[in-house]
Design goal:
Blueprint: E1 2-3, E2 7-9, E3 14-17, E4 20-21, H1 22-28, E5 38-39, H2 48-60, E6 65-66, E7 84-85
Antiparallel strand pairs: 1-5, 2-3, 3-7, 4-6
The structure holds zinc ion.
C-alpha cells in the first residue's frame, strides 16, 4: 500500500520522502473516511474499509510508518525515508 505523499529537499541536497504515521492517521480519521488516500499495488484508489484492513495488518507486523512507492530503503518501523541523492530521481 502506498500513500500519495509529497517530498521535500533538505539542506544536504537530498530528497526526503514524507511518511505518514499510522497511529496518527487513524486518530485524525477516526470519524472520517480514508477513501482515496491510498492506492493499491495497481495504482487504484482504495476504499476506506480496505485501507483500514491493511493498516491493521501493517500495525500487526509492527509497522509505524507508511512511505511512498518511490522511496527505496524506507524503514516502516520508525526510521522512515533514509534520504536520497537528488540524481537518483532523474
Ligand atoms: Zn525516500
Amino acid at each position: 500500500m502506498y500513500g500519495l505523499f509529497t517530498k521535500e529537499i533538505n539542506e544536504m541536497k537530498q530528497i526526503r520522502h514524507l511518511s505518514t504515521n499510522i497511529e496518527g492517521l487513524l486518530r485524525n480519521f477516526k470519524n472520517k473516511k480514508l477513501t482515496g488516500l491510498f492506492d493499491d499495488e495497481n495504482g487504484n484508489p482504495m476504499s476506506d474499509k480496505a485501507i483500514r484492513k491493511e493498516l491493521a495488518e501493517l500495525q500487526a507486523k509492527g509497522h509505524k510508518l507508511i512511505g511512498s512507492d518511490k522511496c527505496k530503503g524506507f524503514d516502516p518501523f520508525g526510521g522512515g525515508c533514509p534520504g536520497h541523492p537528488i540524481e537518483d530521481e532523474q
